[in-house]
Design brief:
Elements (H helix, E strand, L loop, with lengths): L1 E2 L16 E2 L7 H8 L4 E4 L13 H23 L3 E7 L1 H7 L5 H4 L1 H17 L4 E7 L1 E3 L10 H8 L4 E3 L3 E6 H14 L4 E4 L3 E4 H12 L6 E3 L2 H17 L8 H8 L2 E2 L4 H7 L6 H10 L7 H9 L2 H4 L2
Parallel strand pairs: 1-2, 3-4, 4-5, 5-9, 6-8, 7-11, 8-12
Antiparallel strand pairs: 8-10
Helix pairs in contact: 1-2, 2-5, 6-13, 8-12, 9-10
């Protein structure tokens, strides 16, 4: 297992798993091929997620983080004789294909990088190596030593303030089933393919009410922001980023169209092919809440409100 610092928490992984802290971008092509030659299958889970707000233009940052590195690893793996590479991606690329009129990839540098990642890694892998892409939705659970990306939203729920959210919903999955899907891709799939990995389709209202229960909040009333109002608010976040010379991977003005939609899909075909399980989502929500420190304060809440994209994004 390779990764950047910090190292995983002690006792998180079995003794048979060797952890090596390594910056793949700093290794030359020959060294990379030598490192990969010992393996039959590689799981590529590196890159930048949509929460990053780099300097403008964001395209450059996400292309470097998500496309160049993955393509380089794919090429080196093929040259080293690796027979399979499992690429962990985003379900936004699925909806980019499903809803072409929304021009999701064109509007969002993060999604564009994920689409390019699939296309170029597929081309580079050729017929010599299977490229198995897992398009993942919102994932819940906990890992020792890590604070979940849902911490800002959970602080909001704990704050006691009235809860405002949007219409719509999304597919969600417990992290244990993502792990099972990855193992299934390594063990079961022998040819290049793309799978939408997920579990339950959940409305945002149901999700917020579940978080209220998990944090012990008695008032679970969710006040829905009307679609036209939320659509009119999106430009504010983008403008604030631009004033600082920054650009988000998901442009809030366009992303709210996805936020208020139902990004649902049927995972039964991928579950059958990959052999991963279902259920346990409510426990995963509770685990997520338990992993988020209860440190609500006015300052932290203001930071949350000013950075809504952390809980709108994937």
């Amino acid at each position: 297992m390779w990764g950047l610092p910090p190292a995983p928490a002690a006792d998180l992984l079995p003794d048979s798993v060797v952890v090596q802290l390594l910056d793949v971008a700093a290794v030359d092509d020959r060294q990379l091929r030598e490192l990969l030659a010992a393996y039959d299958a590689i799981v590529f889970a590196a890159g930048a997620d949509d929460r990053a707000v780099p300097a403008e233009p964001a395209f450059t940052f996400f292309y470097q983080a998500n496309v160049r590195t993955s393509v380089r690893v794919t090429a080196a793996a093929r040259q080293a004789g690796v027979r399979k590479l499992v690429l962990l991606g985003s379900y936004f690329t699925y909806f980019d294909r499903l809803w072409p009129d929304l021009t999701i990839a064109e509007d969002h540098p993060y999604v564009y990088s994920r689409r390019e990642q699939i296309e170029l890694c597929t081309a580079v892998s050729g017929s010599d190596m299977a490229l198995v892409v897992l398009e993942l939705p919102y994932i819940f659970g906990a890992m020792p030593g890590a604070v979940p990306l849902w911490a800002p939203l959970i602080r909001y729920v704990r704050s006691g303030l009235p809860l405002y959210y949007t219409n719509g919903g999304t597919n969600m999955i417990a992290v244990i089933h993502v792990a099972e899907a990855i193992a299934g891709a390594v063990e079961r799939i022998d040819s290049s393919d793309i799978f939408q990995v997920g579990d339950e389709n959940v409305s945002w209202t149901r999700f917020l009410k579940a978080l209220c229960k998990a944090v012990g909040r008695k008032d679970d009333t969710i006040k829905i922001i009307e679609d036209d109002k939320i659509l009119g608010m999106g430009w504010v976040g983008d403008a604030l980023h631009s004033m600082r010379g920054k650009e988000a991977g998901l442009h809030i003005r366009e992303f709210v169209q996805i936020q208020i939609a139902e990004t649902y899909f049927d995972p039964r075909a991928s579950r059958k092919a990959l052999g991963y399980g279902a259920g346990g989502l409510e426990q995963a929500w509770r685990d997520t809440v338990a992993a988020c420190p209860d440190t609500s304060s006015a300052t932290q809440l203001n930071r949350f409100v000013g950075n809504m994209r952390q809980w709108f994004g994937h």
